[in-house]
Design a protein that fits this description.
The complex is a heterodimer of chains A (293) and B (302). By secondary structure, chain A is mainly alpha-helical. Chain A has helices at 2-48, 54-58, 71-102, 107-119, 124-138, 145-169, 173-181, 186-214, 218-223, 243-251, 256-292. In chain A, helix 10 runs antiparallel to helix 11 (256-292). The N and C termini of chain A lie far apart (63 Å). Chain B has 302 residues and is mostly helical. Chain B has one domain (75-301): MetI-like (MetI-like fold). Chain B is 78% helix and 0% strand. Chain B has helices at 2-51, 54-59, 75-106, 109-124, 127-145, 155-178, 182-190, 195-206, 208-224, 227-232, 250-259, 267-301. The N and C termini of chain B lie far apart (52 Å). Classes of the chains: A mainly alpha (293), B mainly alpha (302).
């Protein structure tokens, strides 16, 4: 009896030790992940903060790192995103409405569904290859803003469709039924009842999708977007560069000072992303409150 | 009055049909995108294999399309891709899984609610930033411990890529574990199992297909990742599994060729599509497997 008690105590002690070891290992893992995030941000801040000033934002890139700025990249990112949103948002919302409100559950909607899930997993360079062959070469758009925007639109489309579908699914069915009962057609129901309720959710998801697109460099490099541009884009067919490409260009230079330029550009990009995410979080917060009312 | 009502339905019908057609077109764009990708890759790849036999593409141990002595063996690029992806998974899998078990089985709702979004930030940081971090912070740090390490190497971008995909593994695995029914845990605990025993003896095995799905998706993501390796791994295709040497991945090769001005129709131009095809097929298989596993998981507990 006494012996059994000792064995049990031993067993319990071992169990407790195992719990402890796991907790320490898990906390270590978590700390490693979050700590790296902190170190990364601090590293970029240390390298870049000193270079970040008004001149950096309003100057074109230059051979001399002291005079280099990101004006053309900033403008390129801005124009590219506007175009991408104009193309991808209506397409994505349209596709989501079709899949949620119109398509019957048969083979076509099933194919589209699997297809969207897979497209979301296709590496972004592959989209660059598609854009290069289809928009740049075959359609003859060249390495232009519009070719870049079309490529980026295809890249973010699956994410927008997924987000928009989720937003539509949160609209309670009685709203649709009430609308039909009053004699509204399907499109009238979608346009007047479903969309207004789902819209903030769609917007939130899309903002997150576009903020991902802002940081993408590889599809645009594959497309042939230039890395050195010392003018502002003046039309749809104008050559362009974007912030991540400019960063890549500066990181690849041997001169040490260009690395500071890269770090400063990273700070600008992260600030833009932070702002976009803050808007998305704000929108989500607001809609959640309204839904519970 | 009756006149207008009688008139209305046809107009409404045509409008409805028109709207439905437009919406159908929107949904079809995503199918066209896939067809476009497959078509473009297939077309240029077939052109490529007119000049380079498939056998030498798969078995030649050198990749030198940009030199005068041209060799077209995908093996060095595949090897570089495999090496960096394996390092990334070796970092992300243990960290991600530990985090997932901890968040799902130990942490309270509040801790999970704060940690999860913060972890997600890791996945939201642009990859060029990770490339910068790998080249200018992690590599110099590693060089202090590994003296012979080259400035461009597979290890540093591999590790950084692993950090980037931690949230992918942790949040997908955590979702899977969270979906395991509570009564399974209760049954285990009623039999005297500790929390840890419940977690690894019951919850993890039950959520296995979900965890495996997250693993496959992470591998696919690591294979397709471009900017980190393009910046920090160097651009020398070589057949080595030594992580301290410079390597070139398939994605980094596509970037390297794209930076130069390669005219259409040349063999260099076609190589990026052949490499892209290999990349596309590899990620497609992984994504489909992962999708299938997730479906199976949600059928079980959905």
């Amino acid at each position: 009896m006494k012996l059994e008690g000792a064995v049990l105590r031993n067993l319990l002690a071992r169990r407790r030790r195992a719990e402890w070891i796991f907790k320490i290992a898990a906390s270590g893992a978590l700390l490693f992940a979050l700590g790296t995030l902190g170190v990364l941000l601090l590293d970029v801040l240390r390298d870049g903060l000193g270079w970040l000033d008004w001149d950096f934002l309003t100057h074109f890139p230059s051979r001399k790192p002291e005079q280099a700025g990101i004006l053309s990249a900033l403008a390129g990112t801005f124009y590219l995103m506007i175009l991408t949103i104009l193309i991808a948002f209506p397409l994505g919302v349209g596709a989501a409405i079709y899949l949620e409100e119109y398509a019957k559950k048969h083979w076509f909607s099933r194919i589209v569904e699997v297809n969207i899930a897979n497209l979301a997993g296709v590496p972004s360079v592959i989209y660059g290859l598609l854009g290069l062959e289809l928009f740049v070469r075959t359609m003859g758009l060249g390495r232009s803003l519009i070719a870049g925007a079309l490529t980026m639109a295809l890249l973010v489309l699956p994410i927008i469709i997924i987000a928009a579908r989720e937003a539509i699914r949160t609209v309670p069915n009685p709203i649709r039924e009430a609308s039909y009962a009053l004699g509204a057609s399907r499109w009238q129901t979608v346009w007047h009842q479903v969309l207004p309720v789902a819209f903030p959710g769609m917007l939130t998801g899309s903002i997150l999708a576009f903020s991902r697109a802002i940081g993408e460099a590889s599809p645009l490099i594959t497309l042939g977007a230039l890395t050195y541009i010392a003018f502002l884009p003046d039309g749809l067919t104008s050559p362009f560069t974007v912030i991540p490409i400019q960063i890549f260009n500066w990181v690849s230079r041997p001169q040490k000072a260009f690395l500071n330029c890269a770090a400063a550009a990273i700070l600008v990009m992260l600030a833009i992303l932070l702002a976009m995410n803050a808007v998305a979080v704000f929108l989500r917060h607001r809609t959640q409150r309204r839904m519970t009312l | 009055m009756t006149e207008t009502i009688r008139k209305r339905p046809p107009r409404r019908k045509t409008q409805e049909r028109l709207v439905q057609a437009v919406l159908f077109f929107c949904a079809a764009v995503s199918v066209f995108t896939t067809l476009g990708i497959v078509g473009v890759l297939l077309f240029e790849t077939i052109e490529f294999f007119r000049e380079v036999p498939l056998w030498s593409f798969l078995t030649d141990t050198q990749w030198t399309p940009l030199f005068s002595d041209k060799h077209f063996g995908i093996l060095p690029l595949a090897c570089g891709t495999f090496l960096t992806a394996a390092i990334a998974i070796a970092v992300a899998m243990p960290v991600g899984l530990l985090t997932a078990v901890f968040l799902s089985e130990y942490a309270g709702d509040r801790l999970r609610g704060t940690v999860k979004p913060v972890l997600e930030i890791l996945a939201g940081i642009p990859t060029v930033v990770y490339g910068y971090f790998a080249l200018l912070f992690v590599t110099p740090l590693l060089q202090r411990f590994i003296p012979g390490m080259a400035g461009f190497n597979a290890l540093s971008p591999g590790i950084v890529m692993g950090i980037m995909i931690i949230p992918m593994i942790s949040s997908l695995s955590e979702d899977a574990m969270y979906a395991v029914p509570q009564n399974l845990r209760e049954a285990a605990q009623a039999l005297g199992a500790s929390r840890l025993q419940t977690a690894f003896g019951v919850v993890v095995p039950s959520a296995f297909s979900g965890i495996a799905a997250s693993f496959l998706l992470a591998v696919s993501r690591a294979i397709g990742e471009t900017m980190i390796v393009a910046i920090a791994a160097g651009q020398q295709p070589r057949l080595t599994l030594d992580p301290t040497h410079p390597v070139e991945t398939m994605t980094a090769y596509i970037v390297q060729v794209s930076l130069g001005d390669t005219p259409t129709g040349t063999i260099e131009y076609k190589t990026i599509f052949a490499v892209g095809m290999a990349l596309f097929l590899a990620t497609l298989v992984l994504n489909l497997l992962s999708h299938g596993l997730r479906e199976r998981f949600s059928e079980k507990y959905g």
